[in-house]
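Mods, move this if it's the wrong board.
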Amino acid sequence: MKGSQSNDCNCLGCLARRRNSQKPSSVQVDIAGFIAGIPLTQPKKQKVLSAAGFLVAANQHMKDRAVTYDSPEGERSMERTVAAFNELKGTNLSVQDGWTFMMLLKMVRADQGEFKADNFEDLVAYAALAGEQASIDAVRKQNQQNI
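Not the wrong board. Structure tokens:
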């Protein structure tokens, strides 16, 4: 029924116009809007997240995961993970290589789809853990040279 807003017509145009003229209930299925690509609600406005905010979030994630998975000292599963992978695949990856792999994974994920702060928060955490491991390796190497 072109040009009419009859409630009897179920063409996509009329369904979409009716949908726009009345607020759908939370349980109403909006097939016409879905097909026409019209969102039921307005998308949330994205806030700008600061670099310091990513650092704080990454630190909190590390604390949370330490409680859930590791130890009070924090994330310490990479050494065991890399050792298991090396045994399984006959490789010789280092713990540093493991953190680098995780950083690359997060960079690839961050480049796919819509923005998700979690990808960058984890990337920051993995970079910090990689830096810590590089520091540990440097001290070990120095101590071995001093023997």
